[in-house]
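Just scan this pair:

***
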Amino acid sequence: MDTLEQRVERLERSSRRWKMAFLALAAIAVGGAAAKPPPPPDAQFGHLTVQSLSIRSDAGGPFVSASCDKDRASIKLMSPAAQTLIALTADKNAANLIVSRNTANGASSANLIADQQSGFIDLHDPTGKSKEVEPE
């Protein structure tokens, strides 16, 4: 049978091992938390000037694009998966609004155009038929 001293000694050794294991796990947890970089903070700008800006959550997914150059500015909303496009374009000679959708049957679109002469609507269906509507 163990003596009281032997039993106390075994308990102390066991207690030291448990303390060391706990400290090692705590150190690993703290190290793991410190290794993960924090997410970038939201940015706030009073004014932002860029020549082109694209917003998308993942490559190949829906996006919003805005761009401009010397004579032309455009905004596009596109969903490649649904094959839809909405585009607004303005330049020194005209302004266009295009709404388009591609399907297995073909593309259909509506194009609203305002230029220096007048404004008109150009419609296309998936079969290739088109119709232009102008003011009389």
